[in-house]
């Protein structure tokens, strides 16, 4: 059982590290603003919460439970129960995982709980101790601060994933390998994981910013709308990474086939060059009594000459008929123009001018 | 025909194993709370139900029918008819299957029926005999207990499927085989099966918790909302397993191609090394009269030397030109960073600091 | 022009095979219940219908037209025009096809039409002649009987498709062939065909059972709701078959690649064994004057011995390095557990027990 | 500038080929019904329209512009502006393209415009000159005639695409080629093109038939509903063609792999037969002094016999072990049953009988 | 800090390049129309905006922030805050990127901001200096001009992408290469990028044109509806390009396999021709004492003849059995008819004629 707590008295005095009785009296007074944050929730916390606060049984169970809950908002009249997800920075998993922040939000209290260390509670704690600004502006604003920091802390992970996807894009063209495929799969699953929590989160924030709950005051709704916009941004970036992962997968599969083609060509060239020549050597290795060429003085050297000519000729032919291809100019042009929109500018100017007249 | 029954009299007395007349009088009294549970429904049960209860013909047919019905709720005014699905733990199928629980829910009765043994009815029965709590709180709460236990019993299957998908993920990278593909396909179909019953189930619970039916009292609605949340959780876990199965399929297909590349390379190396040398041996096996090298004292050994040099040289060249690749450092870095979000922490700290100031 | 007709007089007398004048007077009387069923509609029928009934021109054109119409309901105030689809059991097509049943439903008449023989009209006809029950309960109930039988007659096709998909699943693992692919494609297109008519059909039945049309009386709505449930069941079964077809397609594609791998391995093993040995034989076939081994008494037998050793050694090596794989134990375990949920029971018990306490 | 015009005077007289002043006076009178149809719209037309009619600037620009506009309806109070798409039968493109028909529809006028020749305007023109029926029934009916004919003219293209898809289906099984792939891709893109215009068109017609616009009178709405049904039918047929194209693509890809397998098998059989025999010949071509077999009188013939036996034996073995497969009976059964629903009839009868009793 | 500004005084006089005090007084007067456009926003701008204008803090932060925001509209009562996206023509990225235009729109002011040079602000500036038309018609019309020009400037990029996709389509059939795949991937990601901003943009414009915001006057709404239509057109063109990219990817993958087939066939033909002949040469190279053919006078030449016959025969056989295929007539017909809808005209005429009668 580990928790910290702050209480802003109605007269504006801020006290911290309240004991159980203080919390109970602050909570019951119905005045001021109480914030209690629980970390690593267990049975002891459950008992504490049940005895001190007047919360609905089912919400307390969700609050305590180590199982994952989807983001949601439950309305209990006097207070609402919120579940949000941020990145779990303590996970050892190969794939990005999310961590849960549960919040009871009432007129004069915010009770938050989480099973892993979250940067958002630390950041808000620091901010309160420095300026006490978040706790001065009411419980709905304090909850907003927690959720806002939680969501903003997803961005570094998204940025890292964007870097990884850029690395994959480079890797996949230059030197695709089995490990690249693993990286693609991990990236893809991470984007799906993030997508899966962002969709219900968007819905919850849309409801909070729309004024469905009287606890969120009119002036604070716009701040929740702001978190909503951040989630839209995160979803867009995440979706772009997913597109890159999908493209990389297609490219990877085609690169395996391409590589196989290269191997096949080497094999075919080797066979096409040496099998006929071996036949030639075999012919003159036959033991027929009457083989006039064998008597010829320059016969042997003629055969060697024919073989050398054949080798050179076949290699040249394979080269010429594009079996060993070199990127031709035409395609290069396509890429350059797609790649560099700056060049489109000239093109664009000629189009836009008739409009200006 | 096999059923068990409980009746909580209005005065709080609990009687069990009622015979037909008792059930009829308890049902008609309109008081107390009657629970009858039918297992393995047949024509005899149909007759029994038609004679004792006053249910609509179509609902009774759905109740009796061994066919699968989608989860639904039908409103008959005085009572509602519910169909829910849980895991069928008695099935021999290769793929996870669901079993149906049908419930008639009225003000003073719960009539449930199922064709396979379900743990939820056993659990609620045990709970009633121990504490009689579920039956004390009204018919809507008793029905909730049944549905809640039914849905929660899906979780062990989901957990097992998660274990299987983890095994598949390991298997697919180390040693993918035809049996792995079968496991992927079974996992995928199981997730689809679960998905297919969870979607309408969510809809039904949303309606039950929203107050659409007066039989579900206000205080009990939140409990149905709780089952709704469990279903969301199950759907999310199930979706993750499906993503893993999809990824594993892509990886499997690419691993077949990769393996083929390896085989091709071995073949090509063998051909590229031995076909030219065979030609060389063939040349000196020709029977021309005038082949000066054949007279040379060290000719034979020179040819052997050339052959040995060629073999060593070609193998070295194939090695050097990456035909037998070893994972390069760069890609490894990508994976490590994706895999271990802990390392992102440092990165994250530098990002988050400007915010705190 | 082929039709049959029934008329239940207001006094309960049932007459059949009415001629044109009888139909006209029964229809105009506005009393009793008239049912006329047209088969294989043509221009003559059109004229007949236009002269006798007072239907809207556009609806009559849809009724007559041999073109396929999507399921729909059109409200013309006094009567409604319904289009439903069942299985076309007379089609010669490789893919399941649907047949149309058009119904004009008014307060005292049901006029149905179809271009192919449908079992539903036969069944309702038989039922009327035996008990006259369907025609006693009003026009909305009679129309329900037709639609209900039509939809239920889809089930045998679905069952057959389920059997086919089970056959495909077995075939695809044991011995996939080009004809298996054809069967998969036909199954897939059949499921799509059924899906395409069931979606609008569901919508139409939802409207009929909701009370949007006063012609459907309150008491009959629940019967239309019952057809709605049947459609949901059919759609679910159909979707499962489609999943199986999709899985089978993936398995088929991977099995082709797997088979190619097997072929490649045989080729590579053959080449890797015999090309080096041929070189050895070639070397001792060279005609150098000074080749000391050739003089050795046991030289020939030594070479034979080396060759035999090499063959045995290489085959053993390919075997050992898993080129000819045997399913390893680990994967087998995965499959068994996925396949047989019964085994999950023990696992499940240990999970569920803490809940019961 | 090219246009034709008709004016039905309030007294029922029909005049055609009005000049500018006639059009202006007919339009301003607010009586009778004026139809002007513009083909191949240019700046001159714009000037003409701006001077004569009182239309909103933006709608006129859409009307004139050669760019493609999505189907839509814009409400300008006194009149509505409609954009519909039909098939562009004058296009040279490899893929089916659509052509635009813009209509201004007011109480006493219809002004239509299009950049390519459309059969619908020709057809309505002919119909007016013959019977003047379309122009007698009001502006909303005249517009309906234009749109109805436009949409119905999509059907020949759909029918042609259905024929093409049937050809592709046959081709893909018998002899798939690179050109078949091109045909699949063109078919697929054509279906997508049609799908893309049909979706908004359906939406527009749904609004027109719902009574959203007072210009469409109650009695005419049902005619717009009829066009709506035609679009649904076109969409369904189009979707079926798209399914066929998708299936054909999968089949094509697998057929390439299958063909490669066949090639590989030939290669492997050739290598497996001739490499070992070449070794045998090589062994007896070695020049060891002590090779007893060489002295045997029948040695040569024994070797020839061994070789012949080996060739026959290996070919027989490859045949027996199914490398050259012949469709086995079991799969054939699957196909036959899928293919021919008629055979399901017997099966169906046994299922349906219990129902009839 | 870089900005330009215009102020249309209530008396119609236009002044430009206002300093801070002028802007402040113009803004506070509540009369006339003020337009300020900020480029390359930084902290200095933020301070300026905060001091001069009375905007909500969160909107100002979005306005200043260099991060990407999704298109949106926020209602602040007196003014609305708009975010739109156009093409970023200054980006060096390989993939089309979008640039943001933020607009504060109030009754007498438009404050716009963007981090990259946008052609739309330049174009509107030029237009104001020439005719002052955009600024005369009110703030909602001025904002419309900006957004309209921004969206219209997407078209040149779409046109360029359409050209690129046409190039890819040609390339993919004639000579697909690794660089073609890169071009496909870039095209695909560009279409996704454009799709991602167009979807919310459409939603915003739908709300602006619907009259949700009183700042947009009734007469101007139709102009926003016009932009909405442009976005629909852009989305349609973009979607077509995406379809082409998807098709090209499938074609590319199949072309790799096809090419591999060609390589395999060459290899197989070489092996099938030369391995048997080498065996033949090997046989007559054996050193058996008793090989009667060796003594025959024409033996050697007979063997040469057999070899030549075998080579010619095998090549002819491979040719005949279609291993080297030539496009057959039948498929060509399919393509031609798909490709050229003109030919459908005759077919169409015969269909349409019965309609005309």
What does this structure look like?
Five copies of one chain form a homopentamer. With 357 residues, the first copy, chain A, is α+β, with helices and mostly antiparallel strands. Chain A has twelve helices and seven strands. Chain A has helices at residues 20-29, 43-52, 57-64, 119-131, 133-136, 139-152, 155-174, 178-209, 218-283, 299-320, 329-339, 344-356; strands at 2-8, 14-16, 33-39, 72-75, 80-87, 98-106, 109-114. Chain A has a seven-stranded mixed beta sheet with strand order 2-1-3-7-6-5-4, sandwiched between helices. In chain A, strand 4 and strand 5 (80-87) form a beta hairpin. In chain A, helix 2 packs antiparallel against helix 3. The longest helix of chain A has 66 residues, at 218-283. The radius of gyration of chain A is 35 Å and the shape is rod-shaped. Chains in contact: A-B, A-E, B-C, C-D, D-E. At the A-B interface, helix 4, helix 7, helix 8, helix 9 and helix 10 of A face helix 9, helix 11 and helix 12 of B.
